[in-house]
Amino acid sequence: MTEAVSAPRFDKARMAVSGVNLNAALAFLVLTLAALSLFGGWGGSWSGHSRALAEAPPDIARLIFWEVRLPRVLLGLMVGAVLGLGGGALQGLLRNPLAEPGLVGASSGAALGAVIVFYFGAASATPLALPLGGIAGGVSGLTLLFLLAGRTPGITSLILAGVAVNAFAGALTALALNLAPNPFAVTEIVFWTMGSLADRGLDHVALAVVPCLLGAFLMLSAARGLDALTLGEDAAQSLGFPIGRLRVQVLAGAGLAVGAAVSVSGIIGFVGLVVPHLVRPFVGHEPGRLLVPSALAGAALLTAADVAARMAPGTAELKIGVLTALLGAPFFLHLLLKARREQL
Amino acid sequence: MRRTSLMAAKSAAAAVFAAAWAVAAPAASAQPDQLLPKRIVSINLCTDILALQLGVRPVAVTAFAADSGYSPVADVAAGIPVTSGRAEEVLRLRPDHVLAGRHTARFAVRLLRRAGVTVTEIAPANGFDDIRRNVRTLAGALGRSKAGERLVRRFDAALEAVRADALEPRRSAVIFLANGYTSGINSLYTDVLDLVGLDNVAARLKLGTYGFLTVEQVLRAGPDVIVRTPSDPSAPALALEKLNHRALRRYARDHVIVPAPSSDWFCGTPRAARAARRILEAVRAQEEAQ
Fold first, then answer.
1. Sheet containing B97-101: order of strands
2. Burial of B123 (C-beta count, 10 Å sphere; 0-12/13-18/19+)
3. Which pLDDT tens digit goes with each residue over A147-173?
């Protein structure tokens, strides 16, 4: 039930890669993937369109680079980082390896909030309403989950409460889209449930960047408190990290960052679940040390998934959440089976 | 689905009011009067529009017929009862003639035919010729052949007027509609552009008749003119937000982006001539402004 998932096996890897080296390596990976994403895979094939920028007239090439490709890559980095970080922080706070923004109701709540402000005209009047709606929804989803599941939920109650909150928020999202005045709204449920970075502009990056940074700051500055929490709530309290304040800090951070991210990208599931588990073998089991690598690995994973989504065959572009779910769902099952074995 | 919530109420009302709308198509043609359909129900927006343009008032139409965003005859359709197009709802109106699209409501059409109702189907119009054909088909089926010929003549005259006034020299253009929907060869959209003096670049992109474009693909095509779906701030959707992409707003500084109302050419009707006229005038106005 704690995140102590088979530690010894990875000790060698841990010794080999110190925290700083790991972060440097991940940062290098992120930059490499971002560069690849900027120059390749636009328009269905890797090679066929990578020369497009060079062939276009210079002013059009500049426009494509700065206003189409760069915003998309930036958004992928930002959303991926926030989801990975959110997963790491929530797993630490709940001391539960299955916690992630998608499961704990932050993402589905955020989608509901964003849908309500977007389709009924509030966001056309004030663009800032979009991230604010997402944040309000994300925080509400998280709050509801905690009311349902309790302070330190076990795996079963976390999953059950998560299923309930997500089903409820999902149904309300579908209902809102059905009632929306624009006939296209109904079909856009695919965007809100599966997520996409397609054809988003710098204005979307600008809308989400401040709450994402604020939320990330809140979660990152909870690192030492989360480490202390592994010793138990009382120990954390005596070390100067009252559980109440820590909880508010992490949940507010996750609500802010994930809420704003989902409001511009839709729900992209499983990143927050998979990423902390991928980096945990390299940093060990202090949740505090997990946060920065989780953010970096989240950014890398989502950037890679976005390139793959662009290059997938088909008439319309693949939604990015399809790829992360294809990767994440089997991983989720693997974690569940592992948790069951450890309970026996 | 602007009126979805009203639709249930309206369709209930439709059954009640149906008797009051005992509208007979005026027997203007040579057909014997008793053969003319008297209770016409249209279950497709495009047949709603064509019927109303022919001067026929159906017993019931679709909810979109009175929606000015999609229908050029919204004011005429305003008082007409609405159905969802489901067979049981249509049958309750006891129609003797149903108008439908060839590729929509297949199940309802089959049931209606089995129940003995005459159904006239209209294929989607992929060009001006198809519009003329559809007008004549529908006019013939409704006993309004003369009105049909008049409508076709007016349509041809309006097209001719645009052709005489077309852009010189021709410009390149891309159609970029809601969701990035575009149209290449062999479509009504391309016919309209061609008439105005615009060469549809999508025909070069080998997209076939219909397809979807990303913002980057549009920019790479680098057209002189982009024809788009207008924004609707009161009813936003991602489908339209994509067309407001910042990159396109920048592109519009030294290129022409023209909004073309869906109601003009969403359905292939003689109203397409109006789409051509509006696009022509908007391109001229913007080019002068630049």
1. B40-42, B97-101, B118-122
2. middle
3. 998 877 777 888 899 999 999 999 999
Of B192 and A157, the structure prediction assigns the larger pLDDT to: B192
- Both tokens assigned to B30: 């040579």
Angle at the Cα of A158 from the Cα atoms of A157 and A160, rounded to 5 degrees: 60
Residue B103 near chain A (CB below 8 Å): no
Helix (H) or strand (E) holding B101: strand B97-101
Asked if the ipTM is above 0.90, the reply is: no
Distance CA B184, CA B280 (A): 19
Give the B window 172-201 contacts with A, CB below 8 Å.
178-180
Strand pairing of B181-183 and B210-212? Answer: antiparallel
Question: Is B93 within 8 Å of B10 (Cβ atoms)?
Answer: no
Residue among A42, A59, A68, A193 with most chain B CBs within 10 A, to mutate: A68
| Contact with chain A for residue B116, Cβ under 8 A | no
Residues 6+ apart with CB under 8 A from A291: A85, A88, A89, A92, A219, A220, A223, A226
Closest CA to A92 of A205, A304, A192, A241: A241
Chain A residue with Cα closest to B236: A119
Q: pLDDT tens digit string along A91-141?
A: 999 988 889 999 999 999 999 999 999 999 899 889 999 999 999 999 999
